[in-house]
Structures are given as C-alpha cells and as structure tokens.
Amino acid sequence: MGLHMKLGPKAVSACGAILFSLMSPASAQQQVAAVPDGPSSLREVYQDWSVTCSVREKARVCSLAQDQVQQNGQRLLAMEIAARPDGSTTATLLLPFGI
Asked: In this structure, are residues 71 and 93 in contact, taking their beta carbons and an 8 Å threshold?
C-alpha cells in the first residue's frame, strides 16, 4: 500500500505556479482593497490540491494543501504550504505514527 501520485505536465506546471506565487513576498504582503459585500475568503480545488486564500489584518494570506488517504479512509499524508503576512513561508506535514 504505497502512496502514488501521477501528475501530468499541466498539473506540475499549475502546482509550480501556485507554489511560486505563495512563496513570493509580494503576494503575501499584498494589501487587499475593500470590496463591498465581497468574500473574505476563497477556496479553489484542482485535482487533489486545494488553494485557500483569506484576508487577515488587511493582507491576503494563502495556503496550498493536499490530503492523501488510503481506501479505508485512514490518512496517509496531509501537507500544507502557507504564505504568512510577514512574507515568510511555512510547510507542514502530518503523517501517521510508524511510517
């Protein structure tokens, strides 16, 4: 029971572009203009990946995440890469014990 991910060239390019934009200090520190009645957060999904952006302290904060589960529903891997308002980037991996 291994973890297998098959990504085509378009998927790899899309993930690379998302990662690049998340790690860019300009995007993390970008000031968000107030939009009347506009959404305060946004979530998009592409295959196994999800991108979530929200507004915190008048700055846009985004993260890229993926969960991999076995057929029985047990989580094998949860990964999140997030751009913080100060311009730094964090990565978090959650794995079950014993791996």
From this structure: no
> Which pTM does this prediction carry?
0.56
3-state DSSP assignment of residue 4: coil
Distances in whole angstroms, Cα of residue 57 to Cα of each of 22, 42, 61, 85: 18, 16, 10, 8
CATH of the domain at 63: 2.60.40.1880
CA distance 70 to 93: 17
**What residues make up the domain containing 95?**
32-99
Are 78 and 94 within 8 A, CB to CB?
yes
Write the single-letter amino acid at 82.
Answer: A
* Of 79, 89, 91, nearest in space to 27 by CA: 89
In this predicted structure, what is the pLDDT of residue 27?
45
> Where do runs of H (alpha helix) occur along the chain?
9-23, 25-29
As a whole number of angstroms, the distance between CA 10 and CA 59 comes to: 30
